Structures are given as structure tokens and as C-alpha cells.
Inverse folding.
């Protein structure tokens, strides 16, 4: 009888231990995903802050490109108002496409390409795009770790009792994967 009680106590302690270790693992992964999302947000905000200066600089050389300026401004507003990772992914693709059209304008304006303000903004934008790509990759690795762990035993038995959902990847929209076609008059 004593051995049965000791075995029962050991099983209870082991189950409770596995529960707490699993819980702590999932919480750590969840916070890692949140940290990754915050890093993406920081870089997207940095890029959004650069855009008005870039648009203003290009406008100084190409005032008649109003449709392109409007598409960049509208895409930036959608990026700023996106709240979920899926919305941010879609808005990011749209903004990238609009920026590509804006940057293609510079090909028609050699004096713009040689402007120091424009060159500085382009350097900052390029660096920011690299930071966004790095933050996106890091975030997606954290999402994979969380989602994969949530499907494995014993975690999958614990997940229903927690307020942890699978996370969305930061993916490029299908339209963002297509090359931008720019027609200059």
C-alpha cells in the first residue's frame, strides 16, 4: 500500500511538473513571437516615417506624378492602421509595390538621382528594408517554433486550457510577389 501511495504521489508530481514546464515553454515562445512582432512594427514605423520625406523630395522633381504619390500615401496610411499580422503583411506588400513605382520615377530624372537628400533617403530606406527582412525572418522562425511546439505532445494537451493561439506568419501577399510593371511617359 505504501508503495502504491508513493508511486501515485510520484505520478502526480511528475504530471504537475510536466504541466508547469510545458506552460512555461509555451509562454516563453508566445512572448518571443510578441517580441518579434514588435521588432517588425518598429522597422515598419521607421520606413513609414521616411516615406513623407521621400515623396516630398521626388515631388520636387516630378510634380506631375500625382497618381504615384497618392498610391504611396494611401498605402502608407493602410500600413499605419493595420493591426493584425495578416493586415500588416498585406499592407506591407501594397506599400512595397507603391514604393517601387515611386522609385522607378527616379530613372526619368537624373537630377533627382544625384540629389544628396534623395541619395540619403534611399540609403536609409535600403537599410530599413534590410532590417524589415531580418525582423520578418526572425519573427517567422519564432512563429514556427511556437506553432510547432503547440502541436507536439504534451503541449497539445495543454493548449486548449491556455489563452494561446497559433500565430500568423508575416508573408508577402501574392500581388507583392509579382514584378512591378512601370510605364513612364
Amino acid at each position: 500500500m505504501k508503495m502504491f501511495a508513493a508511486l501515485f504521489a510520484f505520478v502526480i508530481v511528475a504530471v504537475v511538473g510536466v504541466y508547469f514546464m510545458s506552460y512555461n515553454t509555451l509562454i516563453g515562445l508566445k512572448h518571443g513571437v510578441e517580441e518579434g512582432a514588435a521588432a517588425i512594427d518598429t522597422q515598419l514605423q521607421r520606413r513609414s516615417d521616411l516615406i513623407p520625406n521621400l515623396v516630398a523630395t521626388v515631388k520636387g522633381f516630378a510634380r506631375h506624378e500625382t497618381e504615384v504619390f497618392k498610391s504611396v500615401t494611401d498605402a502608407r496610411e493602410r500600413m499605419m492602421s493595420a493591426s493584425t499580422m495578416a493586415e500588416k503583411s498585406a499592407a506591407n506588400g501594397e506599400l512595397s509595390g507603391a514604393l517601387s513605382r515611386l522609385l522607378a520615377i527616379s530613372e526619368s530624372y537624373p537630377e533627382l538621382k544625384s540629389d544628396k537628400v534623395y541619395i540619403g533617403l534611399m540609403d536609409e530606406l535600403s537599410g530599413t528594408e534590410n532590417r524589415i527582412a531580418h525582423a520578418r525572418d526572425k519573427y517567422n522562425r519564432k512563429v514556427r517554433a511556437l506553432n510547432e511546439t503547440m502541436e507536439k505532445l504534451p503541449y497539445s494537451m495543454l493548449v486548449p486550457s491556455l489563452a494561446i493561439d497559433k500565430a500568423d506568419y508575416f508573408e508577402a501577399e501574392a500581388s507583392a510577389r509579382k514584378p512591378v510593371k512601370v510605364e513612364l511617359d
In short: The first helix runs from residue 2 to 61. The domain at 13-172 is CATH 1.20.1440.20 (de novo design (two linked rop proteins)). The chain has a mean pLDDT of 86.
